[in-house]
Write a structure and sequence with these properties.
Helices cover 38% and strands 18% of the residues. It has 238 residues and is of the alpha/beta class. It has one domain: Spore Coat Polysaccharide Biosynthesis Protein SpsA, Chain A. The chain has a 7-stranded mixed sheet with strand order 3-2-1-4-6-5-7, sandwiched between helices. α5 packs parallel to α8 (208-227). The chain is globular, with a radius of gyration of 17 Å. The relative contact order is 0.16.
Length: 238
């Protein structure tokens, strides 16, 4: 059955968070959407909990990686499996509020074909001071080098055109740079303020030092991709 919207949620060891999150998403987007959870190699009960929930939420789909590949790969797996022209993502820890999804999707639909993505901005972050400091520093560094205007590139709640996303050059950890990559392909990106909530269960899977080192080198790689591109083509059949 054709769906109007695909929601992609990457998760890893979030057994206590996925049930309330899936129910919130279903309430926010309605029955005409599919909700794709991508289990990225969980070692807890995340996968079985999601499978049991499928009888309650007809639009729920569960895709499992054979091992942990990281957030970018999980998002890409979900988007490739999606069947709608418009897709949206949010983090699997419950900190993004699914109630914000209709707002982002409405902006995207009303923005015309040149608008490729609408990205959330967490104006009030419910994270510890170390995480907020590291994220703020990384955003300033990336913005200065890539000139993408992104003040919160790590915000997981986004809405975009599936075709545009799949046209982006892929590399692991590319989810931090999807705004700059969208712009590289000639698409506009708009930003919308969104809610951010405290994590209710579990712990964050990311370490500041690890993220900083990977992000530092990847930023120069994306800058290279920006330089090695002659602009978006606008082909037409004649």
């Amino acid at each position: 059955m054709a769906v109007a919207l695909s929601i992609v949620v990457p998760v890893m060891n979030e057994a206590e968070n996925v049930v309330p999150l899936a129910r919130e998403i279903a309430a926010a987007v309605g029955r005409d959407a599919e909700i794709i959870f991508v289990d990225d190699g969980s070692t807890d009960e995340t996968r079985s909990v999601l499978q049991a929930l499928k009888s309650e939420i007809p639009g729920l789909r569960v895709i499992a990686h054979n091992r942990n590949f990281g957030q970018s790969r999980a998002v890409r797996t979900g988007v490739r499996a999606a069947t709608a022209e418009i897709a949206a993502t949010l983090d699997g820890d419950g900190q993004n509020n699914p109630a914000d999804l209709p707002k982002l999707i409405s902006v995207l639909k009303n923005g015309g074909p040149s608008l490729g993505m609408v990205s959330g901005i967490r104006r009030t972050r419910m994270d510890n001071a170390n995480k907020k400091f590291a994220s703020g520093f990384a955003n300033k560094f990336r913005r200065a080098l890539l000139r993408d205007g992104a003040v919160d590139s790590g915000c997981g709640i986004k809405a975009f055109r599936r075709e545009a996303f799949l046209a982006l050059p892929y590399f692991d950890n590319m989810h931090r740079f999807v705004i700059a990559l969208m712009q590289r392909e000639g698409y506009e990106v708009q930003f919308v303020d969104v809610d951010h909530r405290p994590r209710m269960h579990g712990v964050s899977k990311y370490k500041n030092l690890q993220r900083a080192l990977v992000g530092f080198f990847d930023t120069f790689g994306v800058r290279w991709l920006q330089h090695r591109f002659k602009g978006a083509a606008q082909p037409r059949e004649i």
